[in-house]
Amino acid sequence: MPAHRAGTTTRSESRDSGTGRMSLNRRKFLGYLVAAPTLVVVADVGREAVFGGAPQASAAALPSPPQTPEYYEFVDSYRDACRLTNALLRVEVKEDGRVAFALPRSDNGQGIQTLFAMIIAEEMGIDPSDVDVTLADARPELVFNQLTGGSSTTYSLYTPVRVAAAIAKGALLDAAAQALDGERRLLETAGLTVVDTAGNSIGFGELSRLAAVPVTTPVEVVLKANEEFTILGKPRGKDDAYAMVTGQKKFTCDIQVPDALPTVICRAPELNGFPDGGPSNIDEVRNMPGITDVEPIGNGIAVRARTFGQAIDGVNALELNWNPGTVSGQSDEDIVEGLRAAELPLAVPAVPGKTLEQELIHYSRNGSALETNCAIVTFDGSRAEVWAPAKSPIAGAKIVSEKLGIGVNDVTFHVIPGGGSFGRRLFNDHVQEASEACLAIGKPVKLMWDRANDCRQGRVKPLCVTRVRAVVTDDAVASFELRYSGVNMEVDEGLTDVLTSQAIKAPGGNLGVSETFWELSVHTPYNFGVNTRAMVETNYGFNSGSTRNVYGPDTCTARELMIDRIAERLNKDPYEFRAEFVKTERLRKVIQRAAEEADWGKSMPAGTAQGIGVHQEYKCATACVVEIDARPETVNRQVRSGRTGPRVTKVTFVVDPGLLLNPLGYEAQVQGGINDGIANAMTAGLHLVDGSFVEASWDNYFYTRQWNTPPEVNVILIEDSEYPDPGGAGEVAVAATMSAVVNAFRRATGIEPTNTPVLHNEPFPEGFTQYPTAPPIPTSPTNGLEFTF
């Protein structure tokens, strides 16, 4: 197993040098006791300052003007959008005394249910196991406040939920003071009871009824100081971890809804192709064993059966002609040519002898989760009920209402924990198709995508081209320009609503949705004189999505690769160059810590090297140092049908996460992001050939596998961060890791990377076999044990 560890320093409370913000400790917040039979509390958190102090410049650098994400990034935009409806979030004390919170977010393995149980328990003085955090059904009245994405959950909900929990505790203590005829200041919570100094106690259940109010009442509260935390800041495993590894955890396809039978879609061989007429043998397929229904929907044919195996057999038996897809006849080379033609011009002219320029092609990547797309839909003609993993359930409920011709309030949308997301759950394709199938068939359906078409037809991080030009003086960088030309990056309806609602308030005004997200997320954290960045998107023929870290991995890799090249031009060490030119002291400390922990600059054998990458996003500062082995004996390893090549052997990842709430959960997210970064850099890319992707399933999509996972991984969490807010975790590690790996590859091999993943254009490994498109769902192999022992 890889080794992991975290920093163990003591938290200090002070003003953040990068933002100028103070800690939230000891401020008063407003909330409400809600009129209800038992104790119900909501929070009303007003707008906080979002603009901070100017970045610090290195004395040797040419200062660059600040870019938007340095003082206002996407997570700020989303938190501001949520403020309108924070007062609708409820912490309840039930009649049995247990505390309940319906979390308006989607947990797909990131552990936010566990985290918010910790947050509520901390403020109420109880154990997290006494808090039931469930996922809220779609609540249209929350407007923007039920979107999960952009690593924004904790940042947007931390304070409102704490306020509600603190008010709940205060109401319980007030009720107990009356019931026990004592003073509130002498009372404390113990378990799910309140006790006085004489040992008298009264349970939360009884107090909940006593604390209930007939009229909604405003209440002010002071939150617990960070120094008083006994739960937050301590490691806690995910509450559902045991259930997951023992197979007891219920996902969507485990839910038994009466008459909701397995349903699978027959899809085209080309991307977004659609049937040219109906199946010629539809009656024959309808009479196959277990098949109950075969009906056309959208871009395919829905087959409903007693089992998924029977449904797949029905799909593969259909005889269909297909119309061409949206990129019929095109391959990666055609898309790249179009993107180059669309590239926005660079502003600073090239200076002979002083200019460095590079282009990188970043091929499409699959963001599919362990659990494929799945949804259950029932419809009785007037009301619909949905069960599905969804990060934008309000948008999902709207789609269902439109497909079925009913009002959005006639849709009950249950958000089910998902088996991973990586941007995929932001989109409601599965819900839309299940609704279409339910309507066409006239019966409940349990729809599941097959893995092959999840890769071929599912949403991907689309192909893009980055260009960087830098003008370098004798000891500094006079200008640094980044251009991004990409296939259109779709964002879901919920994210679109958030961005358009907040875009007018952000610098830049009325930008488009993608441009707004770009403006709020992409920046260059170095003093490089004239510093510009711009993006353009074109080609709308792909099923694209905001895969993990969205624009960050590709733009960061382009930037950090160029920085290594600039350092070489100036005869500077890559680490020392970054530490000198970085804008903020916060990021400089992280870079220095990573270099120290990784023993940067140590002697290494020929064919091996270290690489460094730096990134700042989600209110966090990150630096990654990797070691890579590109010697022939490693590169030429043989794994059946597998991509080997150079191997990352060690990762040192340092992150300043702001206020660290659950070190164990945060570290787990970083570990996952590290493996994503390695995959993006080295092996994981889709090949578009003649209108369809070659890869179909994980058998031949080369994500980081066991033979390419680093044997040593060290995660260092800065626990004495001066930044007062909790930063994001889910996407924070991808960009810095990807860029560090590409830089290490370049240093170890002497090869100038022209694309990511860097091995994308290598021949497919021996034994690789492309799955056929007919039948549409490849037959599952049955000989796995032959290759196991």
Automatic annotation (TrEMBL):
Originating species: Pseudonocardia hydrocarbonoxydans
Q: Which residues form the Aldehyde oxidase/xanthine dehydrogenase first molybdopterin binding domain?
A: 356-475
Name the InterPro entries on file.
Ald_Oxase/Xan_DH_a/b_sf, AldOxase/xan_DH_MoCoBD1, AldOxase/xan_DH_MoCoBD2, AldOxase/xan_DH_Mopterin-bd_sf, N-heterocyclic_Hydroxylase
Q: Where is this region: Disordered?
A: 1-21, 770-789
**UniProt name for this protein:** Isoquinoline 1-oxidoreductase subunit beta
Q: Which residues form the Aldehyde oxidase/xanthine dehydrogenase second molybdopterin binding domain?
A: 88-233
Q: Where is the composition biased (Polar residues)?
A: 780-789
Q: Name one GO molecular function term.
A: oxidoreductase activity
Task: Please provide an example of a Pfam family that matches this protein in its UniProt record.
Answer: MoCoBD_1
